[in-house]
Amino acid sequence: MKIQKAAVIGAGVMGAAIAAQLANAGIPVTLLDIVLPDNPDRNFLAKSGVERALKARPAAFMDASRASLIQVGNLEDDLKKLKDADWIIEAIIEKLDAKRDLWAKVEQVAKKTAIISSNSSGIPMHLQIEGRSEDFQRRFVGAHFFNPPRYLHLLEVIPTPKTDPAIVKTFSEFAETTLGKGIVVANDVPGFVANRIGVYGIVRAMDHMQRAGLTPAQVDQLTGPALGRASSATFRTADLSGLDIIYHVSNDLGKATPDDEDFTLTPAFRTLVEDKKWLGDKTGSGFYKKTKDEKGKTKILNLNLDTFEYEDQGKVKVAAVDAVKGRPLAERVKALYGAEGKEGEFLRGVMNDGFWYAAKMAGNVSNRLQDIDNALKWGFGWEQGPFETMDTLGVQSVIANLEAEGRTLPPLLAAMKASGRDAFYQGGEIVTPEGQPTPYQAPYFILTDLKKDATKIVKKRAGASVIDLGDGVLLAEWHAKMNALGEDQLRTVQDAHKLVQDLGYHGLVIGNQGENFSAGANLPLILSQAQADEWDELDDMIKQFQQVTTSLRFSPHPTVAAPFGLTLGGGAEFTLHADHVVASAELYMGLVEVGVGLIPGGGGTKEMLLRFTDQQQPSQRVGATLLPAVQRAFELIGTAKVSTSALEARNLGFLRDTDTVAMNKNHILEDAKRQVLALAPGYVQPTPRQDIPVMGDAAIGAIKSALHGMHQGGYITDYDLVVSEQLAKVLSGGTGNNRTAKVSEQHLLDLEREAFLTLLGKKGTQQRIEHMLKTGKPLRN
Fold first, then answer.
1. Does one domain contain both 355 and 454?
2. What is the pTM of this model?
């Protein structure tokens, strides 16, 4: 069973977004919807779905050209097109009768090997397929995406008792590898996993908030990043999801679950939905309301639940949150759980509700504790799931708190109390829903699981490590804040190269599994050295940086980079020099140094010029015909262009056609390791190029002429002009060269270093760096 073509039925927000994600993965997809009466365009709804996905922000498509993989149609004229689909998924209205009617029609035309799925968020899967043939029921499995499907990692796969296990395996592997999703196998129960526990948390948070006398804005401070959860926290998430959705889901869950699972909405929440019709972002008003001030600047107003008036409360400050800023997650969680006053009272109430309910749901919504943790992490943006959080606090301590509140322990916690075990995850084991230890199975090749085995760490520094990935491959892993590049990171790559050679490894991977691959150089260090006039030290540091980045290409063994997330500045320069790149599809890569008044100094300027000149025909690599390649590199670097996906990174030139794009970020290290092993047999060490054609003064003149026109027109600032002229000098190969000159890579690296230091010594650059460090935004001086 292979899924090579797909069909989506229902072109609403979710259906169109699912179709877009299939197209992102390179899967041709047919998108069908109903025919609107009195509309001459019978495919209007499907077309509108694609157009909406193209306009969506954040973008639903990784590259707008992928929309061409979607063929639109309607359910009256084009139902027969489903016969070509290997996977058919519906995302229609949440009504059981409508879904049953649809499946009766689909069964008549779908091929006998097609996998059939529903994206329903609440209607049990087994109820939808009553009356269908045994063969249809065997191939049916729930597939519940979270919105937006491109960005939220979670996909709940929900088999029914009739689903063939082979179908579950095939579909899960496809969704994980091809679509890039994090798979949680859920039981076919009301709410499945994430919504069952997540909506319970929102409902209980509303109740505890009013008991404690807090505001929605204060609660969002307490339940957001400070607690290791998404910045949208509780009530901003409710607004984004739609208060009507939460209203209906909580009511449905309240009817379908036991009395002790309290999904009762507060009177205030009911007033918002039933009387005010304030449903969150979709109506413009919910717990928050966006408005404009007199200058046209967006302002967020907060709802006063006593008066139901919106108020400008300014920047909300919460003492318990301020007290833990800058501390590691484990310390923050412990401090917040033990906080005093009404803030602590609220947090303990909400967290204890969550702990109790997650333990009660173990074995009910899913048969593995890690699936519950992963569902909350991947579906709601938590850093830790409920069981991981209890491990942080100490399970026995949590149990004591629950008993002090007079709660009856769920069987899982009762078993933990009896065993005295203080952690669910411990020593490579995790407990089952019955409280019995069992070997832990990671969902992917995940670096954090390697760290549990200290023997895998070959060499460690404070900000980076060398790790044995097995099969003769080493990993140079950075683990500093934002993976900013400094001494530890550079020396670790050097350590890794030496270890590969000394110990006979096959090759090296550069990667990690932090939040981002690397946000670039250590700006505070660079600025402090410049302001202290430590120019010799800076010159040596940049030379070292260039030597390390270029070592990825000119070492006697293969190196493969595995970038993801923010891959900026120096992070991009490391990536550019690898023999091969395995990039996460969500790659935000760019040479952004001009934003702080610099140019790329680690070989990035050289590399883009080299790539773009090599892409020209041999006859164009001389004289004025070189100018388009120079201009392309100048525009890319001079505008600090950042890709919005790996597909765009390839279009921009940051990735080569031969580089690999992986839809699932958690697969890139394993894929990179395989690439090293594929390159290693017969690998020949490359030598630096000596034949790079440059235009010299002719290119400098052409670029300067364009720059001065832009400056006079007000398109660039005075200091933009200064930075751009230094960039032009490097891309032209330096002054004095003629139109037929050829230079070495080292020549361009020397020019880079000279320009970098020249700009760093200027007041305008230092002002830009200071402003970026202070505000996080570029200064246009």
1. no
2. 0.93
